[in-house]
């Protein structure tokens, strides 16, 4: 292990909230050396970002309070130095990049101005800063740096924005770069590119890299050592390979076990009756064609996954099938009836049969409605089950079915965790006894351990109730675990389709191959051998 | 940008025309001007002559047509009270109202932005409390009362400034100070709220991680984002002031357009009222265009 550049020692931070004091991190210690990559791995609420924010003096005090500990950099305790002294280190010696580059870049200033400011804020002349910015923008792979400098953040794609953030962070050749979920908001192929870029730049500059992530695949791909956090405490620390192959702590074992993409692949029962058939479905927005003709069939009890990156048209497909958008062309037959052209009365009946579960349950559940009201609302709309006592019993039954308990009915969404909220959304969809549930990234916002539970729940519902699923996702591991059939979409077109085993084991289309190659495996050895084979191909 | 201004100008001209039609026909609904203007014992012949003189005997459409043609030559008719062109009377009053409004709004904007930003940066700190007190006074005390108390204290009691009228710079102090309070109280609260939101934005975190100092953090990174909702309120307040501060102008004997309008309405000098309405409308439309331009200058996402 290299000599430590930055050391966090016995750090404890409390958050004082209206509901009492929360111990955000307890007695956390880690260090990172020159040229080393340390991953801080944890699920939401584990406190994985807190210590990094303390290093950057970004914790708001109050509500945060640093109870004890020290952060050592260059012989000084950063928790003791003055505000001004700390400010002078930020960006210059220790730089940071964030998950959402659109939100973290100032929307009203040009990218060039913001990158140059990294140096001018630390007293360097503007001309020198400009030259360095041009050099770095080119280095991170943005074409025409001169023009890029004059553009605003919204004029770039997500991947480009993260590259620009990286360029900004490296302006003053910092000793340490902290990256907080740097690739979580990006598509897998873009994620692979950004991680590769970070690794190259680290090799060039010798900086220490602290990577905060929830993704075992990212850890396997890039990190040397890993710190596993759970509920504010470090439960395990060690080399990535050791921790993956010989996890000591029960939580680490659970986390590794929950990583998707290792279960048995499901087979389609081909004799089930046909539920939905679309032919050449099309949809454009202005001059942009989002869906260039999608044809698919869906059987009763089938789980059909639609995978693709942002802009591939997968959500448009779902919205068109739900008649939230009107298709421009093609047809969709729902149990033999024309879904695109049916009248309002007939559509209302079909609406009951096709339900949707959205990505973010925090936004899709009305915060002012109790769980009972949320679930029962559909019965009001469709004038079903007028009897109150019967409704209460059914809500209790549904909550039980999704792994919640009947007394949760009177609570409100904010009283639940993210995974529990998604269960409520599923119970709401089940209330109308649908024949098809469309899941639009329904588990993407959830932690891996919760993800696995929700997937298992959906699968048992599929088997027990014969519900068909149209499962839209970008995470291939989740798709592999859940779907029996896969459709791959790119730029509005279906480029490949087939049984899950065939798509994963023998992909035909180059795009499918690229997607699978970019998908990170949680096993560091698998990732290492993939990297070696890519290097061999390039050589 | 030119396209945006062009579109705005066309929309404004259409609205101005609509306003003119409305004002013209509404004013004809207030009754027969001959009855209103002439003495109560005027003979029928005198009334006929008056109508013929002012073209009031023509069909209403023709009267409108003539009024329109006159307007195109910037002829709003004569003030009956002052026997001078109405436009001249109005512009004279504007020469007082415009500087009063502009100076007051300039002070309001600068003070509200600086104090509101500082208040947002340190919630519960000195500036935050100061701002709360002034806003509370502005929102709860009527301005005629503040004006009278100010005269009693600063003019009569302390003798620092004149009680009313115009002439020296000192005459402007009290009207500006009294006019300042209410819009300041409102704008500063909007600045504070907007800056509170903007200061917790992710890009502020980035700036702090970059090591940007506090003053540029507030006034460069955050302010430009926080200004967007503020501009709308500033425009609204400025528009109210361009209408003339009727009460303050009356109390301080300030010969502005607000006082002129009230006097003209009381004396049924309709040509002046019409001219004042049209000029004010034009000023407000011009200001709205300025606000649109400011908006698109501040936020590149509107421009693209």
How would you describe the overall organization of this protein?
Chain A has a 6-stranded mixed beta sheet. A 6-stranded mixed beta sheet of chain A has the order 16-17-18-13-19-20, sandwiched between helices. Chain A has a 4-stranded antiparallel beta sheet with strand order 2-1-4-5. In chain A, helix 7 (158-169) runs parallel beside helix 8, helix 11 (250-258) packs across helix 18 (448-465) and helix 15 (371-381) runs parallel beside helix 17 (418-431). With 539 residues, chain A is an alpha/beta fold. The relative contact order of chain A is 0.10. Chain A is globular and about 70 Å long. Chain A is built from 22 helices and 20 strands. In chain A, a hairpin with a 2-residue loop joins strand 19 and strand 20. The two termini of chain A are 30 Å apart. Helix content of chain B is 78%, strand content 0%. Chain B is flat, with a radius of gyration of 24 Å. The model of chain B has no long low-confidence stretch (mean pLDDT 84). Chain A binds chain B through residues 56-58, 87-92, 95-96, 98, 100, 103-110, 117-118, 121-122, 152, 154-155, 165, 168, and chain B through 201-203, 205-213, 216, 221, 224-225, 298-301, 304.
List keywords for this structure.
heterodimer, A: 539 residues, alpha/beta, six-stranded mixed beta sheet, 22 helices, 20 strands, 26% strand, B: 304 residues, mainly alpha, MetI-like fold
- CATH architecture label name of the domain at 274-521 in chain A: 3-Layer(aba) Sandwich
Which blocks of ≥5 consecutive residues of chain A have pLDDT under 50? none
Largest sheet of chain A: 6 strands, mixed
The geometry of chain A reads as globular
Can you tell me the residue ranges of chain B where pLDDT is under 50 for at least 5 consecutive residues? none
Kindly state the number of beta strands of chain A: 20
The separation of the N and C termini of chain A measures 30 Å
Q: What is the CATH topology of the domain at 94-269 in chain B?
A: MetI-like fold
The proportion of residues in beta strands of chain B is: under 5%
Cα radius of gyration of chain B in angstroms: 24 Å
Which pair of protein chains has the largest interface, and what are the residue counts?
A-B, 30 and 21 residues
Order of strands, widest sheet of chain A: 6-7-8-3-9-10
The CATH class of the domain at 274-521 in chain A turns out to be Alpha Beta
Q: How confident overall, as mean pLDDT of chain B?
A: 84
Considering the protein shown, what is the CATH homologous superfamily of the domain at 94-269 in chain B?
MetI-like
Number of helices of chain A: 22
What is the string of SSEs of chain B from the N terminus onward? HHHHHHHHHHHHHH
Main beta-sheet annotation of chain B: none
CATH homologous superfamily of the domain at 274-521 in chain A - what is it?
Answer: P-loop containing nucleotide triphosphate hydrolases
Structural class of chain A: alpha/beta
């Amino acid at each position: 292990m290299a000599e430590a550049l930055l050391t966090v020692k016995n750090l404890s931070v409390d958050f004082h909230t209206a509901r009492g004091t929360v111990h955000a991190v307890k007695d956390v210690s880690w260090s990172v050396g020159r040229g080393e990559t340390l991953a801080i791995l944890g699920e939401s609420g584990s406190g994985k970002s807190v210590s990094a924010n303390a290093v950057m003096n970004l914790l708001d005090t109050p509500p945060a309070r640093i109870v004890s500990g020290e952060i050592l950099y260059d012989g000084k305790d950063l928790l003791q130095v003055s505000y001004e002294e700390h400010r002078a280190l930020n960006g210059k010696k220790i730089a940071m990049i964030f998950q959402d580059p659109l939100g973290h870049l100032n929307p009203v200033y040009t990218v060039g101005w913001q990158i140059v400011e990294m140096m001018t804020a630390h007293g360097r002349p503007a001309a020198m800063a400009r030259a360095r910015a041009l050099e770095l923008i080119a280095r991170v792979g943005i074409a025409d740096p001169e023009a890029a400098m004059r553009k605003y953040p919204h004029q770039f794609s997500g991947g480009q924005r993260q590259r620009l953030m990286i360029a900004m962070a490296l302006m003053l050749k910092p000793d340490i770069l902290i990256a907080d979920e740097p690739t979580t908001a990006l598509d897998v192929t873009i994620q692979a590119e950004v991680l590769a870029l970070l690794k190259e730049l680290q090799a060039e500059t010798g900086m220490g890299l602290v990577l905060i992530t929830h993704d075992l695949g990212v850890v396997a791909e890039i990190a040397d050592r890993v710190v596993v956090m759970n509920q504010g405490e470090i439960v395990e620390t060690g080399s990535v390979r050791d921790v993956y192959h010989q996890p000591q702590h029960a939580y680490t074992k659970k986390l590794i076990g929950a990583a998707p993409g290792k279960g048995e692949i499901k087979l389609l029962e081909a004799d089930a009756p046909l539920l939905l058939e679309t032919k050449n479905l099309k949809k454009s927005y202005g001059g942009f064609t989002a869906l260039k003709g999608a044809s698919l069939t869906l059987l009763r009890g089938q789980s059909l996954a639609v995978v693709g990156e942002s802009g591939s048209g997968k959500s448009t497909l779902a919205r068109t099938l739900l008649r939230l958008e009107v298709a421009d062309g093609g047809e969709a037959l729902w149990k033999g009836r024309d879904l695109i052209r049916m009248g309002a009365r007939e559509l209302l009946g079909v609406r009951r049969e096709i339900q949707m579960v959205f990505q973010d349950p925090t936004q899709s559940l009305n915060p002012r409605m109790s769980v009972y009201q949320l679930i029962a609302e559909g019965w009001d709309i469709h004038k079903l089950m007028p009897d109150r006592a019967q409704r209460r019993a059914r809500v209790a039954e549904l909550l039980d079915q999704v792994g919640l308990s009947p007394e949760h009915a009177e609570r409100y969404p904010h009283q639940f965790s993210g995974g529990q909220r998604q269960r409520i959304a599923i119970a709401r969809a089940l209330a109308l006894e649908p024949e098809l549930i469309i899941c639009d990234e329904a588990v993407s916002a959830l932690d891996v351990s919760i993800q696995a539970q929700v997937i298992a729940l959906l699968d048992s519902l599929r088997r027990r109730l014969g519900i068909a699923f149209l499962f839209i996702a970008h995470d291939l591991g989740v798709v592999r675990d859940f779907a029996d059939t896969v459709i791959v979409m790119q730029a509005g077109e279906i480029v490949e389709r087939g049984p899950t085993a065939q798509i994963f084991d023998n992909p035909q289309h180059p795009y499918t191959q690229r997607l699978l190659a970019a998908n990170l495996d949680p096993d560091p050895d698998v990732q290492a051998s993939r990297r070696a084979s890519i290097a061999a191909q390039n050589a | 940008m030119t396209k945006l201004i062009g579109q705005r100008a066309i929309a404004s001209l259409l609205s101005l025309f609509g306003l003119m039609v409305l004002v013209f026909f509404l004013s004809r609904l207030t009754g027969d001007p001959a009855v209103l203007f002439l003495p109560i014992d005027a003979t029928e012949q005198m009334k006929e002559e008056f109508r013929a003189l002012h073209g009031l005997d023509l069909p209403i459409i023709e009267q409108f047509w003539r009024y329109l043609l006159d307007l195109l030559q910037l002829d709003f008719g004569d003030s009956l009270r002052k026997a001078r062109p109405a436009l001249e009377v109005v512009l004279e009053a504007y020469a007082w109202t415009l500087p009063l409004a502009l100076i007051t709004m300039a002070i309001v904007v600068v003070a509200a932005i600086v104090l509101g930003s500082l208040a947002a940066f340190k919630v519960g700190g000195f500036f935050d409390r100061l701002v709360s007190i002034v806003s509370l006074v502005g929102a709860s005390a009527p301005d005629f009362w503040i004006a009278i108390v100010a005269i009693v204290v600063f003019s009569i009691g302390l003798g620092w400034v004149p009680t009313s009228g115009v002439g020296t710079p000192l005459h402007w102090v009290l009207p500006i100070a009294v006019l300042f309070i209410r819009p300041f109280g409102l704008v500063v609260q909007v600045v504070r709220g907007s800056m509170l939101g903007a200061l917790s934005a992710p890009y502020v975190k980035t700036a702090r991680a970059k090591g940007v100092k506090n003053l540029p953090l507030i006034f460069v990174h955050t302010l430009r984002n926080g200004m967007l909702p503020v501009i709308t309120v500033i425009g609204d307040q400025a528009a109210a002031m361009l209408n003339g501060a009727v009460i303050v102008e009356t109390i301080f004997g300030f010969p502005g357009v607000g006082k002129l309008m009230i006097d003209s309405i009381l004396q049924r000098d309709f040509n002046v009222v019409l001219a004042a309405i049209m000029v004010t409308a034009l000023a407000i439309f011009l200001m709205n265009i300025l606000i649109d331009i400011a908006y698109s200058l501040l936020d590149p996402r509107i421009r693209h």
